[in-house]
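Help! Submission page says 'invalid entity' but I think these are all valid:
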Amino acid sequence: MTNPDLAALADRFGLAPVGARPGLGSYLAETWRRRSFAITLANYRIQSENERNRLGIAWVVIRPLLNAVVYGVVFGLLLGSNRPPDFVPFLLVGVFIFEYFSQSLSDGSKAITSNEKLVRSLSFPRILLPVSALFKQIYKLGPILVVLAGLLLVFQVPITVSWLMIFPVMALMTLFNGGVAMIAARLSVHLRDIQQVIPFVNRLLFYSSGVFFQIDQVLQPYPTVLAIARLNPAYEFIHLSREALIPGIDHQPDLWAYAAIWSILVFLFGVLFFWQAESRYGRE
Amino acid sequence: MNELERAMLEEGRRPTIIVDDLHVKYRTFASGKPAAGSEGGLISRGHKGLREVHALKGITFTAFEGESVGVIGSNGSGKSTLLRTIAGLTPATSGVVYAEARPALLGVNAALLNELSGDKNVRLGGLALGFTPQEIRERFDGIVKFAELEEFIDLPMRTYSAGMSARLRFAIAASKDHALLLVDEALAVGDRGFRQKSEERIREMRASAGTVMHVSHSIKSILDSCTRVIWIEKGVLRMNGDPREVTDAYQENSRG
């Protein structure tokens, strides 16, 4: 049993409980002050990953490219004449943009668990770890977008002013991915098994967000299912990216509203959710 | 609070660390099964693949400004856990630690990233300690020199010997001055020369720190430096008082 006299003594001399969760305001202020830790960690992690592989940084784009080839061949044949128009650009945008999400999710889920030693020996706001995982993905987004643009040009997609719209889409998606990374980071601390499930979550979202088919065409006979499918944030980001990059994609302005709401809500929830368990990271 | 502590309080000394009925339990999974609820007594020993280790069982003491408190006990008695919990790195299962400032743990196991080179670890460790990039640039050469790793600082840490990486960890952790300093066996690191150097550095830090807590197996170094000693055995506080008395009782006990 704790002793009320000691608590009173601590209070009298202005001693504060150690390891107690700080208030949200001071937590975020401290996180901001230490931001260079998250940025540097992200940088170093990318470098060390690159050093391990012969092809280094090229893997950032080779991975989605291989995915695109596999899905392109398999579903291109399967879908036959049901292929969406401009199938190759359509698929490339889908696979490349989805890669940003899926990597943020899987990296975020390991943010705390793979840095356990760091968490156990140094004190800093733990949220810096999922934030660092997000920074890592942001760095990788650069080459991904450049290669995507190059490929689109190769497949004769005209370069237009509307390409600039990819930036607001990516900004929203970054918020969303950040929130997802924080949520996944905390969940996998409580339940390590989450990491086993994440590839399936990725797969499920991949197939349900119309990476290689047109959701609105395929689901046309089922309006309710279509309405639900359009609420899928991954679908929204992919579709908005296609609107920006490929001419002739039908514009669905309401997706902007959904995407914005998702991004802001998931980000804010992610911060709160992660901060709530701050004093518990490093226990198990 | 024991008599000694009460007397110190009456003398008007300022408490800086108050540890109140501190319990720490670790859970370890062997099967990879998920833990239902992380609090509460639903899970107990005997569950498949699950072990619970009760590392600290109700530790209570108060440390005052200007004190240097030694912590002794046999291997696995909970000394390191105590320091990690006071530093806020291992969450307490129940009980509270109050402190004037965030206590800093200076240990040899301050973990760094093995796949990265030494110089990157210095920068990253410094940032994690709360230095600005500018402050790290200023201290960088000093840290590398202290760790005696000038030739190897650009190699990945996984290529370092145990002694080399322990030296680097210590050099990084010791680059900052702290108000409340917890030292965990740091003196056992490296060869003779480095040991003397690190002892000297700890003395310097102790001079500027308000309160120091010091875990060690070396009775000599405890007697040299501590004004009070706490003896922990199997997670229970056995004695808390005068260094001579406590270490004598401890040695008597371990002799059997």
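Support: the input was valid. A stray whitespace character was the problem, and the output above is from the cleaned input. The longest strand of chain A covers residues 16-17.
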